[in-house]
Amino acid sequence: MLVLLPAKTIGAEILRPYGPVSPVETLRKLNHLLLGNWPDEGREFISFIVAFKNYYFYVLIGVLGVLFLHYLIFGPRRFEHRGERIFYYGLFTRLVHWGAALSMTLLVFSGLATLFAKILGGGSLVMSLRSLHVGAAFAFAPFAILLFLALVKDMVPAFYDLKWFLVMGGYLSRQPRPVPAGKFNAGQKMWFWLGTAGGLVMFYTGYKLYQFTAPVSFLREMLKIHLYLGLAVLALYFIHLYMSLVAIKGALKSMLSGYKDSEEVALMHPKYYEKVSKD
Amino acid sequence: MERCIACHGCVVACKEGHQLPVGINRRRVIIINEGKPGEKSISIACMHCSDAPCIAVCPIGALYQREDGIVLVNKEVCIGCGYCFMACPFGAPQFPRGNAFGARGAMDKCTFCAGGPAPTFSEKERRLYGQNRIAEGKVPLCAGMCSTKALLAGDGAVIADIFRERVARRGSGQAWGWAKAYKE
């Protein structure tokens, strides 16, 4: 008799699990515990990862190709390096720059190795490069902060930076003409902000991925940010490398000695040249 | 789910049988409403999905699917990037710690007790992936251990028939399908 009465009328909740309770509610609850946010973001994440591997490939090939073409068409820039020299980078700035440069180089190449692990065959080789990526990140972070503090006062965006972008920094011509730029041009400013502020974001997101203890939904977000920013860093890293080592002769020397040629400063950083000549 | 009594026998069997280190959980038991009316539990591991997300995102192709549907990982190729973990709906991939800088090692997950890509019954296979019970003609440890036979292993169609019969006998009516899961 008792079993024929609905559980509610008996008022005995304890009977519920033993009867044929609708499993739908239970399944829903379990589903959430099991899958988390996967039903909302899982598919999107998968297509994102699959697509992004190609983005890196395209950007890498694209940037290197464009730089190579630029070199073929416009060639490198040479300055006389006979005239007056202007002191440009202090010792502290130079040291911090090279510290950041070295760790950044390790980061870029170990990061690329992780992304294109298939070419390297994976396994312990890539695994150790991934460990190197972590180590280099910890080396890079303090340099990023110091570099930021050392240069930020000259890196504030100004209105003439827009004009610099409009003429593409004057790099699309063989004839060097004065371009609107202060101590640092808009391209350098872009690299600065991406490298230091963006670099610290990279460090935070990378650290979270390294810990791998946060909720998986958060980790997915971290990875997305890390990959998006990494793409930009990759592009600007190679552009910076090209400018300083190949396109502008003497740029490397100036970062070593701290002095720039006055003719170069007058052309490429006229607003700073005016300021210095006045002093 | 109706049969599981949360004894964790499957978890223990799996860990012991494959000699997994602490922190690697190929199988786990989830419990809802613990200690309350309506308490239910279920044992979860890799589902060996037919269209597995982990295989799709793996940047190196370390994950693959056998012809019989078992999804396996090649630990000698895996770089421990963790993409599979982020793509997996069930949290199946596990990562050991302890490399240089404490970075993740190669991924470990349920192998359906089918070993790995290393030669069957070799010492390397046992060390990297655990027992290969499938090659011995046995069911996976968890299913063999399960005292209430909530966990079954075998051909999908056969298992589905057994489960359907169980549900029908229990008399809860139709307990599967889109309408039941999402509409009601």
List the SSEs and their pairings:
The complex is a heterodimer of chains A (279) and B (184).
Chain A: H1 7-10, H2 23-35, H3 38-74, E1 85-87, H4 91-115, H5 117-120, H6 123-151, H7 160-166, H8 186-211, H9 216-247, H10 251-257, E2 259-261, H11 262-268, H12 270-278
Antiparallel strand pairs in A: 1-2
Helix pairs in contact in A: 3-9, 4-6, 6-8, 8-9, 11-12
Chain B: H1 9-18, E1 28-32, E2 40-44, H2 53-57, E3 63-65, E4 71-73, H3 83-87, H4 123-129, H5 133-136, H6 141-145, H7 156-170, H8 178-183
Antiparallel strand pairs in B: 1-2, 3-4
Question: In brief, what are we looking at here?
Answer:
By secondary structure, chain A is mostly helical. Chain A contains twelve helices and two strands. Chain A has helices at 7-10, 23-35, 38-74, 91-115, 117-120, 123-151, 160-166, 186-211, 216-247, 251-257, 262-268, 270-278, and strands at residues 85-87, 259-261.
Strand order of the largest sheet of chain B: 1-2
Helix content of chain B: 25-40%
The portion of residues forming beta strands of chain A comes to under 5%
CATH fold-level assignment of the domain at 1-45 and 139-174 in chain B:
Alpha-Beta Plaits
Number of helices of chain A: 12
Global mean pLDDT of chain B: 86
CATH architecture of the largest domain in chain A: Up-down Bundle
Global geometry of chain B: globular
Q: How would you write the strand order of the largest sheet of chain A?
A: 1-2
Estimate what percentage of residues of chain B fall within beta strands: 5-15%
Q: Average the pLDDT over all residues of chain A and give the rounded result.
A: 84
What is the oligomer described by this structure?
A: heterodimer
How many domains make up the coordinates of chain A?
A: 2
Low-confidence stretches of chain A: 5-20
